[in-house]
Amino acid sequence: MSKPTPILSARHVSKRYGKFTAVNDISLDILPGTVHSVIGPNGAGKTTLFHTLTGSTAISAGSILVEGEEVAHLPGYKRVRKGLARSFQITSLFPNLSVRENLRLAAQGTRPLQALNPWRRPERLRAACDSAEQLLVRLNLQAVAERLAAELSHGQQRRLEVGMAMAGQPKVIFLDEPTSGMGIDDIGDMKRLIHSLRDTTTVLLIEHNMDIVMDISDQITVMQQGQILAQGKPAEIRSDERVRRAYLGSMITGGKA
Amino acid sequence: MKYFVHFRFTLLAALVTLLLPLLVGSGSLATEVLIFALAALGCNLLLGYTGLLSFGQGIFFGIGSYTTGLALLRLQAPLLPSLLLAMLIGAAVALLVGWFAIRQRGTYFVMLTLAFAQMFYFLAYTMKDLTGGDNGLLDVPRPNLSLFGHTMLATTSPWQYYSFVAIVFVLVFWLLQRVVDSVLGRTLLAVRDNETRAAAVGYDITLLKLTAFVISGAVTGLAGGLHAMMTGVAPLSNIEYHTSEAILIMTVIGGTGNLFASVLGASFYVLIGNWLSTLWPRWLMLLGFLLIGVSLYLHKGLFGVAQALLRKFGVRPAADIADTTSVKEQHP
Questions:
Q1: Could you say which architecture CATH assigns to the domain B2-312?
Q2: Which tens digits make up the pLDDT trace of B319-331?
Q3: Does the beta-carbon distance from A101 to B186 stay under 8 Å?
Q4: CATH superfamily of A8-253
Q5: Would the CB atoms of A117 and B184 count as touching at under 8 Å?
Q6: Which sequence spans correspond to the domains of chain A?
Q7: N- or C-end of chain B: fewer Cβ atoms within 10 A?
Q8: CA triple A10-A13-A19, angle to 5 deg
Q9: What would the pLDDT profile of B260-278 be if each residue is shown by its tens digit?
């Protein structure tokens, strides 16, 4: 069986802040149609890795390939056109705009030159409006479509945050702790949502909730101090001796092992 | 009905141009209101729609005055080309200033626009051959509006000139309303609300801000050109920091995020200022108090007060997309 080509590859990616190396020579292959989780203790460099891959910060060394094409030199907004999209660990929405408008703007972002048109009314750009309507249903936010994003509950805001990344129909979607601060009920919805993404896109997930990680991941990368500690399927990670030692067993396995 | 919703603020602006002659005795004063309303519209596009606090609006206003003055004096250009040139040069200078200032965010952006305002002031002060230096550019003529050799509209008397400015004003207001309702305008709101998120969904923030700057520069340049023709002088004071400040104060007092608010702000500033200055020479102090009041309690400015009053009388104004009932800052 031939190995499928990765949709996203990081090759020897490093990110240094002065003398501190937040991400140290990481190489990573993300296969299409999978949920790939990145876990590790706080400060392991997970979010910095996301920043470098999506272009929020420039890398210090290495290369990043999307379907074989080098993107490391591109700023973040141009990588959106290559099929990358992200959600943030700390909710980042357009707080004074309606939920519908948030999603419409996010969907329109893949055709950013249209945004410079000073004459056309946005309602005329059907594609972005239709994507926004479909997402409202998928995120279960129809009832609050006209509310300002700032007025939503935390759980709704986190769903919208993920929706902002979904709106551009990306090839690879980066989710940075989508369940952070969520209540028990909301977490179940979020888990189903993330799982459903796998049908149409590739998911790269940072998550602390081990229930979710172990249940829906195809691959798990464990990071520690800016480096990869272990990599494999959930079962392999759960029984990995180094990971157990690093995280004192129960925390990483969610008490299941 | 749908059309009325799109055009309701443009109709209001047109209504103002009809009401001003009834309320104000002097044609020059009424013209001044509309000219500063134009400048405030340009400022509002930056502050209310893009989130850019620019202290450099006086640059574009002053440059517009000089450009129109020079075109009329040295090139003997007709009315419309002189004004178009003011818009072009205003846009070009805005592109230059924006190009540098936009590279910084927040306080540093504001400082850069201030620095540019000072720089252009001294440039105008020292280039006496072109600008007349301290005295300003004197004897700027005011040609009639003529097309193909026919005089369409005389501009000799103050009220005749007022009607010309009123037509320009309504036209520009309609165009700008169209811009803020367009794909561009709505995307600028996204930049205003959260730059990080706007970039993360694929927008080129620099390009969007620069576009807003260029449009603002063109409109403000036009206002400056009209002002030079109104007074017959392109004075140094038009490019002074004080002009930037006045335009900014009108915009803030009127309220940001709605274009008609700027018309209210400019009318208030010019008319109340004119009235108070006859009563009390230190009237600017009262304006200071008002500005404090707006900053503390009335974030939506006079427009917000007008909305609240309408609501009290049972009129429910249609919601406006750019409305920020409760502007919430979000720091990523």
A1: Orthogonal Bundle (1.10)
A2: 555 655 444 444 4
A3: yes
A4: P-loop containing nucleotide triphosphate hydrolases (3.40.50.300)
A5: yes
A6: 8-253
A7: N
A8: 165
A9: 999 999 999 999 888 888 8
